Structure of Amino acid/amide ABC transporter ATP-binding protein 1, HAAT family:
Amino acid sequence: MAQPILSTAGVIKSFDGLVAVNDITYEVFPGQTSGIMGPNGAGKSTFFNLLTGYYRPQKGRVIYQGRDITHMHSHERVILGIARTFQLVSVFDSMTVLENMMLARVRYGRDYSSKLRFFFKNVHHRELEEECLQALDVLGIAEKAKIKTSDMSYGEKRELEIALALSLQPQVLLLDEPFAGLSLVDIAHISKVINRIKGQFAIVIIEHKISKLMDLVDTLCVINEGRLICQGDPQQVICDPEVSACYWGKEEMKCY
Ligand SMILES: Nc1ncnc2c1ncn2[C@@H]1O[C@H](COP(=O)(O)OP(=O)(O)OP(=O)(O)O)[C@@H](O)[C@H]1O
């Protein structure tokens, strides 16, 4: 049976007595696209931050490829292959798409030891540029390489963020609300992008737009009040009475 690439065992994270993540055990498998949903303040982002290493749990463990990474820093996890995007777009507006890509690779990429060579040797610079152009090509946006990020729409910047994360050659890609603030047209475009890269590595997506999330994921889980209350097949999860109750009180949620 396949082993999970990333998992947690009983992780707990509290802030001054408020238990934001309460004893969550979770598994992500190679090539699988998994969704995480839950009401506002449920603990989704805090859980993501435990996976990426931004927070350390007070209890429990985070395991990646069979290795305990609970106390590992975020940048070390990136080098191991765990990349993420953020709820709010974070790219450098004064730089071009390609420059943003190259900076991400040098700043966070696996080729840390070659940082100095990047600055002083043109050969390595050209190699890096070529690799970044290839990563843009995977998303079909290589023609935007020379565009300044300040001239891009919000949707295009979201796409660039995914490209930045892809340039780190992840084994696990964590997408934090990829549709937040996007128009329906942009959501459709980003969905296409995610569908294009799906299956090559594990993807975990936090998203409030449930119907859009359902179209993308192989498996779904729901966090409510810090607890993972349901996980498994997306259709079954969405029809689960406890999930309906956490969104709609006692009322049944409309099933797809
Ligand atoms: N740094 C922090 N300090 C104190 N409390 C925090 C902190 N971060 C999160 N919390 C609290 O922990 C709980 C879970 O927050 P979290 O942001 O993880 O929820 P969420 O499910 O991601 O919500 P949303 O969907 O609104 O982004 C909330 O009650 C929140 O106020």
In short: Residues 90-169 form one domain. The chain has two domains: 1-81+171-255, 90-169. The mean pLDDT is 86.
